Structures are given as structure tokens and as C-alpha cells.
């Protein structure tokens, strides 16, 4: 499936991606410069960034291979403009990531999120996409904030 709205991240997208990260309470947006530095220096084999661009960067996905594994990747970020939630942008980004990785014989895609009530919708999103809840690491992010790991076999 080719989606004409999905493309590689460009430097000009960073301000918009900062907004997406901040408005979705993902992590401090100032971390993006360090996170994208390897990508913009040509190391696209160790990390990938995509944007969904219908009217600017409406969504973003960031994923990397898991070190010391054979064919396992980890989606570290997916964020959609809050005013566009519910329009299928996140699902389209995930489908694109899954199809791209499956075509490269990647076996497993992991995603992780918070176990707090604020992230219940996020967990439901992964379950809707047929991800299996694999692990819960209690108090991972902070006391009372568990890390929930989801898994999907791609091959």
C-alpha cells in the first residue's frame, strides 16, 4: 500500500514535529535535535522518521532497529496533531511502517507506552491495530507510571 501523504522527515518539519510532540505530552520537545541528529547526518539505516503530510506535518513516526536482535524494530514515537485525532492518520502511519519493515523481512515490531490513565487511548490504539500486550514494567517512567510493551509479528 502506497500512501502519497507519507514521506521522509525533512529539516523544515522539525518545528511542526516539536509541536506534535509537545501537544501530545510525549517528551520534552527540545530532545528532538539530539534524536534526529543521526538521521540528518545520513544514518538512516539506524533510525527512520516519517511524516504524514496532507496540510503540513500532521503526524510523525520514529522507529529504530533493536540492538542485539535479529529482525526486531521498536517504534519509539508516533504522534498526530490533536485536532486531527480520529482521522486515521496514526493508523496509516503504522500500516506504512509495518509494510515497509515486513518488506525488509523484519520479524517483530515493538511499541511501548505509559500505563497511566492518560495513555488509555494510546493503548487502545495499539490493541485496535492487533498488537499484543507483552509486558508491563512497573514504575518504569516514574513511581506509578508503568511501561507497557506491545508486540506485533510482521512475518
Report on this model:
- By secondary structure, the chain is α+β, with helices and mostly antiparallel strands.
- The chain has a domain at 6-112: Aminopeptidase (3-Layer(aba) Sandwich).
- Helix content is 28%, strand content 35%.
- The chain has helices spanning 14-23, 32-40, 89-103, 120-128, and strands spanning 6-8, 48-53, 57-65, 72-80, 108-114, 132-142, 145-153.
- Strands 1-2-3-4-5-7-6 form a seven-stranded mixed β-sheet.
- A hairpin with a 2-residue loop joins β6 (132-142) and β7 (145-153).
- The protein is globular.
- The chain starts with 5 loop residues before the first strand and ends with a strand.
- The relative contact order is 0.14.
Give the helix proportion (percent range): 25-40%
Structural class: alpha+beta
Task: Let me know the number of strands.
Answer: 7
Tell me the β content: 25-35%
Keywords: Transferase
InterPro entries: Acyl_CoA_acyltransferase, GNAT_dom
GO molecular function: acyltransferase activity, transferring groups other than amino-acyl groups
Domain N-acetyltransferase: 4-155
Give the tags.
single chain; 155 residues; alpha+beta; Aminopeptidase; 7-stranded mixed beta sheet; 4 helices; 7 strands; GNAT family N-acetyltransferase
